[in-house]
Amino acid sequence: MDAELISQRLFELQGRQPGYQRGAALASLGIPNKYIRASQWESPAAFRAYFRSAALAEFLQANPAQGIVTSSRLEGFETVAMHSEPGTPTFAVLVDGIVAPGKAAAFEQSRNEGMALIRASGVGNVTSILARSLANQNHYVVYHSFLNPEAQRQLAENPQFQGWRQQHLTGYWASGQGSVIEQFEVVMVHAPVPV
Questions:
Q1: What's the pLDDT score for residue 170?
Q2: pLDDT, tens digit (0-9, with 9 covering 90-100), for 10-22
Q3: Do 37 and 25 meet the contact criterion of CB atoms below 8 Å apart?
Q4: For 21-30, how does the pLDDT look when each residue is reduced to its tens digit (9 = 90+)?
């Protein structure tokens, strides 16, 4: 069994749990065999109930990930801002970083402006999410998914977006921290079928 099959089965299990909303599995384009699974829940309590459930324990016992998957980080985030358009993404960019103390509000405003520019550009952006860590209020993740890599390239070449990037790309990150920007193939998008 491979990581994508385990991910698919986990999404199917999650889809039957109260409070589960959607999920995605991403494969890094820069680091072979690096996958990220993300799922969205209506509340931290809904995720905790799933994480402590007998259904998950039974799944993990029946589908051991040993030798297939190593989990380097399990972290909860709250959605600060989100925008979605219809479409199935195939490409994503993930920005992960620590914002300097006292700059969180300005960072959030800046990223909201950037998300509005992306929406207005009409380049094939499917989802944009700004999320703040539940464990560290200065840790943020910014996620943008696109119909294809060409859509992201078109955005990068958009003069308005280039101007925004020049003004807002730096200046928010904590000293010595910076941010990590990675590109991913979207290998799976999961939303439960309404019953």
A1: 76
A2: 999 999 999 999 9
A3: yes
A4: 999 999 999 9
Tell me the residue type at 109. Q
Q: From 3.10.20.340, 3.40.50.2020, 3.30.70.100, 3.30.1660.10, which CATH number describes the 3-75 domain?
A: 3.30.70.100
- pLDDT, residue 174, reads 78
With bands split at pLDDT 50, 70 and 90, how would you rate the model's confidence at 74?
Answer: confident
Query: Virtual CA dihedral for 135, 104, 95, 90, nearest 10 degrees?
Result: 90
Question: Coil, strand or helix: which one is 169?
Answer: coil
Query: Residue ranges of the alpha helices (H) in the chain?
Result: 3-15, 44-51, 54-62, 104-121, 149-157, 159-168
Pull the structure tokens for residue 141: 């993740």
Which CATH code fits 77-187?
Answer: 3.30.70.100
Start and end residues for every CATH 3.30.70.100 domain found in the chain: 3-75, 77-187
The tokens describing 3, both together, are 């990581």
> How many C-beta neighbours within 10 Å does residue 169 have?
14
Cβ count within 10 A of residue 109: 12
What is the side-by-side strand order in the sheet with 20-28?
35-41, 20-28, 179-190, 91-98, 139-146, 125-133, 77-84
What pTM was estimated for this model as a whole?
0.89
118: amino acid identity, one letter: I
Residue 118 CA neighbour count, 13 Å, CB half: 27
